[in-house]
Specification:
Layout: H1 2-29, H2 34-70, H3 73-83, H4 85-102, H5 110-140
Length: 142
């Protein structure tokens, strides 16, 4: 089923991007001084948000289409898990995002660094959700 293959591919791309942030981008940015760290995080976050939010929406919709086409419950579970990134981001990560976005880079301190460290830990939840959804879609393809 083409929709299922597309869904799996989009979930895998989302997951790869999320994991990349956790294992490559976040550790690299934490090597910067406080001001540069925040100055790098802000545009990286904005760009990543647009990309990852789009992948979640498209992937979630395709997962629902695959479910409605086949009535295979694993497509539905995968879609729900992938779409869970939205409420997870809004309710769990967004308070930290807002504080970081409201902080001018020249006002960055050790507390800012700690918030960005915490943000990385919270972002790992998005990586985990993506991985679970990807595995569900792989399983649904039988």
């Amino acid at each position: 089923m083409l929709v299922g293959h597309l869904e799996f591919m989009i979930a895998a791309v989302f997951t790869g991007a999320a994991i990349y942030i956790n294992i490559a981008e976040q550790p690299a940015r934490l090597q910067l001084d406080d001001r540069s760290l925040l100055a790098e995080w802000k545009p990286a976050y904005k760009r990543g948000y647009i990309m990852q939010a789009s992948l979640v929406v498209v992937g979630g919709v395709l997962g629902l289409v695959a479910f409605l086409s086949t009535l295979e419950w694993r497509w539905l579970v995968g879609a729900v898990v992938l779409l869970a990134n939205w409420p997870y981001t809004i309710y769990v990560i967004m308070p930290t995002n807002r504080r970081l976005m409201d902080t001018p880079p020249e006002d960055a301190t050790a507390e800012t660094r700690q918030m960005i460290r915490q943000w990385g830990i919270l972002h790992a939840g998005r990586s985990a959700l993506g991985l679970v959804a990807t595995l569900m879609f792989l399983w649904a393809q039988r």
